[in-house]
Give the backbone structure.
Amino acid sequence: MDAKMRPENARFDVEFAHSKRPDRKRGGGWVTFPFIAGNVVLMGIAVGGANSNLIVYLIQKIGVKSIDAAQISNIVNGCMNLTPVVGAIIADSYFGCFAIVVVSSFIAFLGMMLFTLTASLPSLHPHQCPNAPSTAMCGGGPSTGQMAVLYSALTLMVIGIGGSRFTNVTMGANQFSTTRNQDVFFNWYFVALSSSTIIGSTIIVYIEDNVGWGLGLGICAASSAAAVVMFLMGKRFYRVNETGGSPFTELVRVVVASMVKWGMDKDGEAIAEYYYGSKLDGRVPPSQSFRFFNRAAIQVNGDTNPDGTVAKPWRLATVQQVEDLKTLIKLFPLWSSSILITVTVGIQLSMTVLQALKMDRHIGRTFSVPPGSFSIASLASVALTLPILDRAIYPAFRHYMGRAPTPLKRIGVGHILNFIGMAGSPWWSGPG
Protein backbone atom coordinates (compact mmCIF):
# COMPACT_ATOMS: atom_id res chain seq x y z
CA MET A 1 0.00 0.00 0.00
CA ASP A 2 1.06 3.59 -0.55
CA ALA A 3 1.87 5.69 2.47
CA LYS A 4 -0.68 8.30 1.41
CA MET A 5 -4.25 8.36 2.69
CA ARG A 6 -6.73 6.52 0.51
CA PRO A 7 -10.53 6.74 0.42
CA GLU A 8 -12.32 5.20 3.36
CA ASN A 9 -13.91 2.57 1.19
CA ALA A 10 -10.54 1.35 -0.05
CA ARG A 11 -10.34 -2.43 -0.15
CA PHE A 12 -7.74 -4.03 2.05
CA ASP A 13 -5.47 -6.51 0.34
CA VAL A 14 -5.63 -9.32 2.86
CA GLU A 15 -2.52 -11.45 2.68
CA PHE A 16 -1.39 -14.20 4.98
CA ALA A 17 2.19 -15.34 5.28
CA HIS A 18 1.74 -18.34 3.01
CA SER A 19 0.25 -16.26 0.18
CA LYS A 20 3.04 -13.74 -0.33
CA ARG A 21 3.61 -12.98 -3.97
CA PRO A 22 6.82 -14.75 -5.03
CA ASP A 23 9.70 -13.26 -6.95
CA ARG A 24 9.88 -14.29 -10.61
CA LYS A 25 13.67 -14.49 -10.48
CA ARG A 26 13.55 -17.28 -7.92
CA GLY A 27 12.08 -19.89 -10.25
CA GLY A 28 8.57 -21.21 -10.37
CA GLY A 29 6.10 -21.12 -13.24
CA TRP A 30 4.53 -23.94 -15.21
CA VAL A 31 7.82 -25.85 -15.34
CA THR A 32 7.09 -26.91 -11.74
CA PHE A 33 3.61 -28.22 -12.51
CA PRO A 34 4.62 -31.75 -13.69
CA PHE A 35 6.50 -32.40 -10.45
CA ILE A 36 3.79 -31.08 -8.14
CA ALA A 37 1.05 -32.74 -10.18
CA GLY A 38 3.09 -35.95 -10.26
CA ASN A 39 3.22 -35.97 -6.48
CA VAL A 40 -0.54 -35.35 -6.35
CA VAL A 41 -1.37 -38.07 -8.88
CA LEU A 42 0.88 -40.76 -7.40
CA MET A 43 -0.24 -40.03 -3.86
CA GLY A 44 -3.86 -39.88 -5.03
CA ILE A 45 -3.56 -43.37 -6.53
CA ALA A 46 -2.16 -44.67 -3.25
CA VAL A 47 -4.87 -43.00 -1.17
CA GLY A 48 -7.64 -44.10 -3.51
CA GLY A 49 -6.50 -47.70 -3.49
CA ALA A 50 -6.06 -47.91 0.28
CA ASN A 51 -8.79 -45.66 1.63
CA SER A 52 -11.64 -46.46 -0.77
CA ASN A 53 -11.46 -50.14 0.14
CA LEU A 54 -10.75 -49.65 3.84
CA ILE A 55 -14.20 -50.74 5.02
CA VAL A 56 -14.06 -53.91 2.91
CA TYR A 57 -10.54 -54.66 4.17
CA LEU A 58 -11.57 -54.26 7.80
CA ILE A 59 -14.58 -56.56 7.36
CA GLN A 60 -13.16 -59.28 5.13
CA LYS A 61 -9.47 -59.34 6.10
CA ILE A 62 -9.44 -58.18 9.73
CA GLY A 63 -12.84 -59.48 10.82
CA VAL A 64 -14.23 -56.18 12.15
CA LYS A 65 -18.00 -55.78 12.41
CA SER A 66 -19.65 -53.76 9.65
CA ILE A 67 -20.74 -50.83 11.80
CA ASP A 68 -17.33 -50.67 13.51
CA ALA A 69 -15.59 -50.72 10.13
CA ALA A 70 -17.75 -47.82 8.92
CA GLN A 71 -16.98 -45.88 12.10
CA ILE A 72 -13.22 -46.45 11.76
CA SER A 73 -13.39 -45.34 8.13
CA ASN A 74 -15.29 -42.17 9.06
CA ILE A 75 -12.73 -41.33 11.75
CA VAL A 76 -9.85 -41.86 9.31
CA ASN A 77 -11.50 -39.67 6.67
CA GLY A 78 -12.32 -37.00 9.23
CA CYS A 79 -8.75 -36.88 10.48
CA MET A 80 -7.45 -36.71 6.91
CA ASN A 81 -9.54 -33.58 6.42
CA LEU A 82 -8.41 -32.05 9.73
CA THR A 83 -4.66 -32.66 9.63
CA PRO A 84 -4.14 -30.35 6.61
CA VAL A 85 -4.96 -27.43 8.93
CA VAL A 86 -2.14 -28.47 11.27
CA GLY A 87 0.20 -28.99 8.33
CA ALA A 88 -0.60 -25.54 6.95
CA ILE A 89 0.08 -23.85 10.31
CA ILE A 90 3.43 -25.63 10.70
CA ALA A 91 4.38 -24.84 7.10
CA ASP A 92 3.52 -21.15 7.45
CA SER A 93 5.12 -20.72 10.86
CA TYR A 94 8.29 -22.79 10.85
CA PHE A 95 9.42 -25.00 7.98
CA GLY A 96 7.74 -23.88 4.75
CA CYS A 97 5.62 -25.86 2.31
CA PHE A 98 8.46 -27.76 0.63
CA ALA A 99 9.75 -29.38 3.82
CA ILE A 100 6.25 -30.26 5.03
CA VAL A 101 5.30 -31.90 1.71
CA VAL A 102 8.50 -33.97 1.65
CA VAL A 103 8.27 -35.12 5.27
CA SER A 104 4.52 -35.76 5.10
CA SER A 105 4.81 -37.73 1.87
CA PHE A 106 7.52 -39.89 3.42
CA ILE A 107 5.38 -40.50 6.53
CA ALA A 108 2.50 -41.49 4.24
CA PHE A 109 4.84 -43.97 2.52
CA LEU A 110 5.77 -45.49 5.90
CA GLY A 111 2.08 -45.81 6.75
CA MET A 112 1.36 -47.49 3.41
CA MET A 113 4.24 -49.93 3.96
CA LEU A 114 3.00 -50.87 7.42
CA PHE A 115 -0.56 -51.18 6.09
CA THR A 116 0.73 -53.52 3.37
CA LEU A 117 2.46 -55.67 6.00
CA THR A 118 -0.83 -56.11 7.87
CA ALA A 119 -2.17 -57.83 4.76
CA SER A 120 1.00 -59.69 3.76
CA LEU A 121 2.29 -61.10 7.05
CA PRO A 122 0.08 -63.86 8.54
CA SER A 123 0.99 -62.79 12.07
CA LEU A 124 -0.53 -59.33 11.55
CA HIS A 125 -4.07 -60.40 10.63
CA PRO A 126 -6.53 -63.07 11.79
CA HIS A 127 -6.75 -66.38 9.96
CA GLN A 128 -9.92 -67.16 8.05
CA CYS A 129 -11.62 -70.41 8.95
CA PRO A 130 -11.72 -73.02 6.14
CA ASN A 131 -15.05 -73.52 4.38
CA ALA A 132 -16.51 -70.49 6.16
CA PRO A 133 -17.87 -67.12 5.02
CA SER A 134 -15.27 -64.50 4.11
CA THR A 135 -15.90 -62.62 7.37
CA ALA A 136 -15.55 -65.67 9.66
CA MET A 137 -12.20 -65.58 11.48
CA CYS A 138 -10.69 -68.36 13.57
CA GLY A 139 -9.88 -67.41 17.14
CA GLY A 140 -12.60 -64.80 17.53
CA GLY A 141 -11.23 -61.94 15.47
CA PRO A 142 -8.11 -59.75 15.56
CA SER A 143 -5.87 -59.63 18.61
CA THR A 144 -4.96 -56.47 20.49
CA GLY A 145 -1.48 -56.49 18.95
CA GLN A 146 -2.84 -56.85 15.43
CA MET A 147 -5.22 -53.94 15.93
CA ALA A 148 -2.39 -51.86 17.42
CA VAL A 149 -0.28 -52.37 14.29
CA LEU A 150 -3.28 -51.58 12.07
CA TYR A 151 -4.08 -48.39 13.98
CA SER A 152 -0.41 -47.36 13.82
CA ALA A 153 -0.46 -47.77 10.04
CA LEU A 154 -3.66 -45.75 9.72
CA THR A 155 -2.25 -43.03 11.99
CA LEU A 156 0.88 -42.67 9.87
CA MET A 157 -1.25 -42.56 6.73
CA VAL A 158 -3.51 -39.87 8.20
CA ILE A 159 -0.57 -37.70 9.30
CA GLY A 160 1.28 -38.10 6.01
CA ILE A 161 -1.65 -37.74 3.64
CA GLY A 162 -3.22 -34.91 5.61
CA GLY A 163 0.05 -33.01 5.91
CA SER A 164 0.79 -33.14 2.18
CA ARG A 165 -2.65 -33.11 0.55
CA PHE A 166 -3.29 -29.36 0.54
CA THR A 167 0.12 -28.02 1.50
CA ASN A 168 1.31 -28.97 -1.98
CA VAL A 169 -1.53 -26.98 -3.55
CA THR A 170 -0.41 -23.91 -1.57
CA MET A 171 3.14 -24.43 -2.77
CA GLY A 172 1.88 -24.91 -6.31
CA ALA A 173 -0.09 -21.67 -6.22
CA ASN A 174 3.00 -19.84 -4.95
CA GLN A 175 4.82 -20.79 -8.15
CA PHE A 176 2.68 -18.29 -10.09
CA SER A 177 2.57 -14.50 -9.95
CA THR A 178 -0.81 -13.87 -11.58
CA THR A 179 -4.26 -14.68 -10.29
CA ARG A 180 -5.28 -16.15 -13.64
CA ASN A 181 -2.47 -18.70 -13.62
CA GLN A 182 -3.27 -19.57 -10.02
CA ASP A 183 -6.93 -20.13 -10.90
CA VAL A 184 -5.96 -22.44 -13.76
CA PHE A 185 -3.56 -24.30 -11.46
CA PHE A 186 -6.27 -24.81 -8.83
CA ASN A 187 -8.65 -26.26 -11.41
CA TRP A 188 -6.10 -28.68 -12.84
CA TYR A 189 -4.86 -29.59 -9.38
CA PHE A 190 -8.31 -30.87 -8.43
CA VAL A 191 -8.64 -32.60 -11.80
CA ALA A 192 -5.37 -34.43 -11.11
CA LEU A 193 -6.42 -35.24 -7.54
CA SER A 194 -9.84 -36.57 -8.55
CA SER A 195 -8.57 -38.50 -11.58
CA SER A 196 -5.81 -40.21 -9.62
CA THR A 197 -8.21 -41.13 -6.83
CA ILE A 198 -10.53 -42.65 -9.44
CA ILE A 199 -7.65 -44.79 -10.74
CA GLY A 200 -6.88 -45.99 -7.23
CA SER A 201 -10.55 -46.59 -6.44
CA THR A 202 -11.07 -48.74 -9.53
CA ILE A 203 -7.93 -50.47 -10.80
CA ILE A 204 -6.17 -50.86 -7.44
CA VAL A 205 -9.38 -51.81 -5.64
CA TYR A 206 -10.10 -54.44 -8.31
CA ILE A 207 -6.63 -55.94 -7.77
CA GLU A 208 -7.18 -56.02 -4.00
CA ASP A 209 -10.54 -57.79 -4.32
CA ASN A 210 -9.67 -60.24 -7.10
CA VAL A 211 -5.89 -60.81 -7.00
CA GLY A 212 -4.73 -60.17 -3.46
CA TRP A 213 -4.67 -57.57 -0.73
CA GLY A 214 -0.90 -57.76 -0.42
CA LEU A 215 -0.34 -56.96 -4.10
CA GLY A 216 -2.91 -54.17 -4.21
CA LEU A 217 -1.67 -52.43 -1.08
CA GLY A 218 1.93 -53.01 -2.20
CA ILE A 219 1.18 -51.03 -5.36
CA CYS A 220 -0.20 -48.25 -3.13
CA ALA A 221 3.04 -48.24 -1.11
CA ALA A 222 5.14 -48.13 -4.29
CA SER A 223 3.03 -45.29 -5.65
CA SER A 224 3.50 -43.26 -2.46
CA ALA A 225 7.27 -43.81 -2.64
CA ALA A 226 7.28 -42.65 -6.26
CA ALA A 227 5.34 -39.55 -5.16
CA VAL A 228 8.19 -38.56 -2.84
CA VAL A 229 10.79 -39.07 -5.57
CA MET A 230 8.73 -37.16 -8.14
CA PHE A 231 8.36 -34.16 -5.86
CA LEU A 232 12.07 -34.07 -5.00
CA MET A 233 13.02 -34.16 -8.69
CA GLY A 234 11.60 -30.66 -9.14
CA LYS A 235 13.45 -29.10 -6.21
CA ARG A 236 15.75 -26.94 -8.33
CA PHE A 237 12.79 -25.42 -10.18
CA TYR A 238 10.64 -24.54 -7.18
CA ARG A 239 10.07 -21.04 -5.91
CA VAL A 240 10.35 -21.34 -2.14
CA ASN A 241 8.87 -18.61 0.05
CA GLU A 242 10.27 -17.60 3.40
CA THR A 243 8.19 -18.37 6.46
CA GLY A 244 6.67 -15.31 8.07
CA GLY A 245 5.07 -16.55 11.27
CA SER A 246 1.68 -18.07 11.78
CA PRO A 247 -1.23 -15.89 10.62
CA PHE A 248 -3.43 -17.66 13.16
CA THR A 249 -1.28 -16.38 16.02
CA GLU A 250 -1.70 -12.84 14.69
CA LEU A 251 -5.47 -13.27 14.60
CA VAL A 252 -5.54 -14.47 18.21
CA ARG A 253 -3.47 -11.45 19.21
CA VAL A 254 -6.11 -9.17 17.71
CA VAL A 255 -8.82 -10.79 19.84
CA VAL A 256 -6.70 -10.59 23.01
CA ALA A 257 -5.69 -6.97 22.38
CA SER A 258 -9.33 -6.02 21.78
CA MET A 259 -10.38 -7.57 25.08
CA VAL A 260 -7.50 -5.96 26.97
CA LYS A 261 -8.63 -2.54 25.70
CA TRP A 262 -12.30 -3.31 26.38
CA GLY A 263 -12.80 -0.27 28.62
CA MET A 264 -11.24 2.24 26.26
CA ASP A 265 -13.38 5.34 25.67
CA LYS A 266 -15.39 4.92 22.45
CA ASP A 267 -15.42 8.67 21.85
CA GLY A 268 -11.66 8.71 21.98
CA GLU A 269 -11.52 5.85 19.48
CA ALA A 270 -12.67 8.13 16.66
CA ILE A 271 -9.62 10.38 17.05
CA ALA A 272 -7.21 7.68 18.21
CA GLU A 273 -3.86 7.07 16.59
CA TYR A 274 -3.91 3.68 14.94
CA TYR A 275 -0.84 1.50 14.61
CA TYR A 276 0.13 0.50 11.08
CA GLY A 277 3.52 -1.11 11.66
CA SER A 278 5.86 -0.44 8.75
CA LYS A 279 5.45 2.87 6.94
CA LEU A 280 4.82 0.90 3.77
CA ASP A 281 1.60 -0.46 5.26
CA GLY A 282 -0.21 2.81 4.53
CA ARG A 283 -2.55 4.91 6.59
CA VAL A 284 -6.00 3.62 5.64
CA PRO A 285 -8.37 3.90 8.65
CA PRO A 286 -9.89 0.62 9.82
CA SER A 287 -13.32 -0.21 8.46
CA GLN A 288 -16.43 0.31 10.57
CA SER A 289 -17.58 -3.30 10.44
CA PHE A 290 -16.93 -5.18 13.71
CA ARG A 291 -15.72 -1.93 15.28
CA PHE A 292 -14.93 -3.67 18.54
CA PHE A 293 -11.73 -5.11 17.04
CA ASN A 294 -10.51 -1.65 15.99
CA ARG A 295 -9.44 -1.12 19.59
CA ALA A 296 -6.66 -3.67 19.11
CA ALA A 297 -4.91 -1.25 16.73
CA ILE A 298 -5.23 1.83 18.96
CA GLN A 299 -1.77 2.87 20.04
CA VAL A 300 -1.30 4.03 23.64
CA ASN A 301 1.79 4.85 25.68
CA GLY A 302 3.97 1.83 26.27
CA ASP A 303 2.63 -0.25 23.37
CA THR A 304 5.62 0.46 21.12
CA ASN A 305 9.37 0.79 21.46
CA PRO A 306 11.22 4.00 20.57
CA ASP A 307 12.05 2.54 17.14
CA GLY A 308 8.36 1.97 16.38
CA THR A 309 8.29 -1.80 16.86
CA VAL A 310 5.66 -3.47 19.02
CA ALA A 311 6.68 -3.71 22.68
CA LYS A 312 3.59 -5.60 23.84
CA PRO A 313 2.41 -7.91 21.02
CA TRP A 314 -0.62 -9.11 22.99
CA ARG A 315 -1.82 -5.53 23.57
CA LEU A 316 -1.33 -4.04 20.10
CA ALA A 317 -2.02 -5.19 16.54
CA THR A 318 -1.66 -3.49 13.18
CA VAL A 319 -4.65 -2.20 11.26
CA GLN A 320 -3.97 -4.82 8.58
CA GLN A 321 -4.12 -7.63 11.15
CA VAL A 322 -7.44 -6.28 12.41
CA GLU A 323 -8.83 -6.24 8.87
CA ASP A 324 -7.56 -9.79 8.30
CA LEU A 325 -9.60 -11.00 11.27
CA LYS A 326 -12.68 -9.14 10.06
CA THR A 327 -12.36 -10.74 6.64
CA LEU A 328 -12.11 -14.20 8.22
CA ILE A 329 -15.22 -13.53 10.31
CA LYS A 330 -17.13 -12.46 7.20
CA LEU A 331 -16.12 -15.71 5.50
CA PHE A 332 -17.27 -17.85 8.43
CA PRO A 333 -20.95 -18.14 7.34
CA LEU A 334 -19.82 -19.24 3.89
CA TRP A 335 -17.38 -21.76 5.32
CA SER A 336 -19.81 -23.10 7.92
CA SER A 337 -22.53 -23.61 5.32
CA SER A 338 -20.56 -26.57 3.96
CA ILE A 339 -20.23 -28.40 7.28
CA LEU A 340 -23.63 -30.11 7.33
CA ILE A 341 -23.37 -31.04 3.65
CA THR A 342 -19.91 -32.52 4.17
CA VAL A 343 -21.12 -34.54 7.16
CA THR A 344 -24.00 -36.07 5.22
CA VAL A 345 -21.85 -36.78 2.17
CA GLY A 346 -19.24 -38.53 4.33
CA ILE A 347 -21.84 -40.73 5.98
CA GLN A 348 -23.44 -41.48 2.63
CA LEU A 349 -20.14 -42.65 1.14
CA SER A 350 -19.43 -45.08 3.98
CA MET A 351 -22.98 -46.42 3.96
CA THR A 352 -22.76 -46.86 0.19
CA VAL A 353 -19.91 -49.34 0.63
CA LEU A 354 -21.85 -51.32 3.23
CA GLN A 355 -24.89 -51.34 0.97
CA ALA A 356 -22.77 -52.45 -1.99
CA LEU A 357 -21.53 -55.46 -0.03
CA LYS A 358 -25.14 -56.72 0.10
CA MET A 359 -25.95 -55.96 -3.55
CA ASP A 360 -25.71 -58.04 -6.69
CA ARG A 361 -22.81 -56.14 -8.29
CA HIS A 362 -22.40 -58.32 -11.37
CA ILE A 363 -22.24 -56.77 -14.82
CA GLY A 364 -22.59 -59.66 -17.22
CA ARG A 365 -21.65 -63.17 -16.16
CA THR A 366 -18.11 -62.71 -14.93
CA PHE A 367 -17.37 -59.11 -13.97
CA SER A 368 -18.39 -57.85 -10.52
CA VAL A 369 -17.96 -54.21 -9.49
CA PRO A 370 -15.88 -53.99 -6.29
CA PRO A 371 -17.86 -52.38 -3.44
CA GLY A 372 -15.02 -49.95 -2.76
CA SER A 373 -15.38 -48.53 -6.28
CA PHE A 374 -18.93 -47.27 -5.78
CA SER A 375 -17.63 -43.97 -4.39
CA ILE A 376 -16.03 -42.91 -7.67
CA ALA A 377 -19.23 -41.32 -8.98
CA SER A 378 -18.61 -38.10 -7.05
CA LEU A 379 -14.91 -38.10 -7.97
CA ALA A 380 -15.67 -38.68 -11.64
CA SER A 381 -18.10 -35.78 -11.65
CA VAL A 382 -15.39 -33.47 -10.27
CA ALA A 383 -12.81 -34.65 -12.80
CA LEU A 384 -15.24 -34.18 -15.70
CA THR A 385 -16.94 -30.99 -14.55
CA LEU A 386 -13.94 -28.79 -13.73
CA PRO A 387 -12.39 -28.84 -17.24
CA ILE A 388 -15.82 -28.17 -18.76
CA LEU A 389 -16.35 -25.23 -16.40
CA ASP A 390 -12.87 -23.82 -16.98
CA ARG A 391 -12.77 -24.23 -20.77
CA ALA A 392 -16.41 -23.97 -21.86
CA ILE A 393 -19.01 -22.69 -19.40
CA TYR A 394 -17.10 -19.80 -17.80
CA PRO A 395 -15.71 -18.51 -21.13
CA ALA A 396 -19.26 -18.66 -22.53
CA PHE A 397 -20.51 -16.56 -19.61
CA ARG A 398 -17.74 -14.01 -20.20
CA HIS A 399 -18.57 -13.86 -23.90
CA TYR A 400 -22.35 -13.55 -23.66
CA MET A 401 -22.88 -12.07 -20.18
CA GLY A 402 -19.75 -9.95 -19.90
CA ARG A 403 -18.46 -11.79 -16.82
CA ALA A 404 -18.32 -15.23 -15.27
CA PRO A 405 -20.47 -16.20 -12.26
CA THR A 406 -19.06 -14.95 -8.98
CA PRO A 407 -17.54 -17.50 -6.57
CA LEU A 408 -20.51 -17.02 -4.23
CA LYS A 409 -22.96 -17.94 -6.99
CA ARG A 410 -20.88 -20.96 -7.94
CA ILE A 411 -20.93 -22.20 -4.34
CA GLY A 412 -24.68 -21.61 -4.15
CA VAL A 413 -25.30 -23.68 -7.26
CA GLY A 414 -23.09 -26.42 -5.82
CA HIS A 415 -25.09 -26.48 -2.58
CA ILE A 416 -28.34 -26.76 -4.55
CA LEU A 417 -26.99 -29.72 -6.54
CA ASN A 418 -25.76 -31.37 -3.32
CA PHE A 419 -29.22 -30.95 -1.80
CA ILE A 420 -30.87 -32.52 -4.83
CA GLY A 421 -28.45 -35.44 -4.71
CA MET A 422 -29.01 -36.08 -1.01
CA ALA A 423 -32.78 -35.73 -1.37
CA GLY A 424 -32.73 -38.34 -4.12
CA SER A 425 -30.68 -40.86 -2.12
CA PRO A 426 -33.68 -42.44 -0.32
CA TRP A 427 -35.45 -42.87 -3.65
CA TRP A 428 -32.45 -44.67 -5.15
CA SER A 429 -32.05 -46.82 -2.04
CA GLY A 430 -35.62 -48.04 -2.19
CA PRO A 431 -37.79 -49.14 0.75
CA GLY A 432 -36.25 -50.73 3.81
Remarks:
- The longest helix spans residues 66-120.
- The chain has 13 helices and two strands.
